[in-house]
Amino acid sequence: MKYLVTSNDWALAGSVYLTLLSRDRDWTFVNVVARDGCNLLSYQNLSKKVKLTVLFGVSGTVRILFQHIQNKKKINMLPAAKVITVSHEKFEKGIGFKNTDFVVLVNYPWLIKMDFWTKILNFHPGPLPEYRGLMPICYQVWEALKQGKKSFKVFYSLHWIDERFDNGPLVVSGGVSVTHFSSLLRVYQCVYSRAADEILSALCATPGKVEASSAKGRYLSAMSLRQTLSFKALLLRVDVFVRFLINGGSIGVISWGLQILIYNFLLTINTLTQYAGLLSVYISFCLVLLLAFFSMKTFVFQRAGLWHRFLLSAGLIIIFVGLCTELLISFFDFVGLSSGYSHVAYPLAAILFAPLSYALKNFFVFPKK
After folding, report:
1. Could you tell me which of 346, 237, 249, 241 has the C-alpha nearest to residue 288?
2. Could you list the residue range(s) of the whole structural domain that residue 35 is in?
3. What's phi and psi for 9, nearest 5 deg?
4. Could you tell me the maximum CA-CA distance found in the chain, to the nearest angstrom?
5. Which of these, 189, 199, 169, 204, lies nearest to 4 by C-alpha position?
6. Model confidence over 91-142: pLDDT tens digits?
7. Cβ-count burial of 83 within 10 angstroms (0-12 exposed, 13-18 middle, 19+ buried)?
8. Torsional sign, CA 88, 107, 156, 145
9. Are residues 218 and 129 part of one domain?
């Protein structure tokens, strides 16, 4: 019998388990909980989870939560013998697990007493011994981004455990190449997607297959609040959606300024005075449309785009935002808000449709090759 052991990580560890199970039906999922059935979380581990939520952001947190729910549902639909929930006390004593063929730990953050165990493998998402401890992926990505790297490598390790944290003979030391970094969660998913293959390879490996690094090791704690905010600021700077919003806001200001300049210029031409308002809108719109396409190509997505698709998507968004603006104005009137609120209808509608606009530009106008 082979066991994958975690502590309520149905998302990343759950995905590793489902992959293992698809290749070998002899695997059992072990979820370690506290005596009262609640999650077993030390303060440091809880702090790590909160900080990861901040670093993943709203969209990343929603995706990891969806993956958690989806994997938990799939795993709990398996036969009862394939899913074991055990208290921390019983697991630490090795009750019911002493005569197992193989045990692998994935996101299990506590020491195990060696008196009860043999042949326990730990998947650690960082190079050992340089990155022992918590959040090694975050530290690796943070250091790469601080150096201005957009493409880099994130390392992981598989090792047989001993009496110390993240210590013991290495079996595998590998890495995942990150090209044009865009999402911290994506890096996590890529690293853990390699776990199943490495674990299956380790079944027939012997301790010490890979020589340990001669570098001096260190133990990482969960990032401090200051480090988390500093790393988050760096992530926002390289985040494509944030760049998209900044670009959109800048284009809006430029459009407004151009419209005023063109309008005032047209007022000086007697034959065009009565058409100044309409012409200033159309001329500034055409100029800004060209500017928006090239700024998205150069600053936001940094890849080639399709002009005709850009025009189509821009037209659709203009129609949707226009309709939404009218609906918001009608709503403000209906609830009795003052006419001053009508001025916020358009920017509010633009914000509401920003995710749709981003999706169209990202997948339809500037598709990845």
Report:
1. 249
2. 2-231
3. -100, 85
4. 95
5. 199
6. 777 666 666 778 899 998 777 766 655 678 899 999 988 899 889 999 999 9
7. middle
8. negative
9. yes
Could you read off the pLDDT of 247-296 as tens digits, one per residue?
Answer: 988 998 898 888 889 888 888 887 778 888 788 888 888 889 999 999 99
Query: Are 128 and 218 in a shared domain?
Result: yes
Q: What phi, psi does 319 have (nearest 5°)?
A: -65, -45
Pick from 231, 265, 280: which residue ends a domain?
231
Structure token pair of residue 313: 């998507």
User: What is the per-residue DSSP string for 136-173?
Assistant: HHHHHHHHHHHTT-SSEEEEEEEEE--SSTT-S-EEEE
- H-assigned helices in 268-336: 276-295, 307-334
DSSP label at 39?
B
CA distance linking residue 38 with residue 234, whole number of Å: 35
Tell me how far apart the alpha carbons of residues 168 and 211 are, in angstroms, rounded to a whole number: 11
Q: Which residue has the higher pLDDT, 112 or 193?
A: 193
Is there a single domain that holds both residue 8 and residue 115? Answer: yes
**From CA 86, how far away is CA 29, in angstroms rounded?**
11
> What is residue 306's three-state secondary structure?
coil
The count of domains in the chain is 2
> How many CB atoms neighbour CB 31 within 10 A?
22
CB 354 within 8 A of CB 248: yes
- Which residues are bridge partners to 284 per DSSP? none
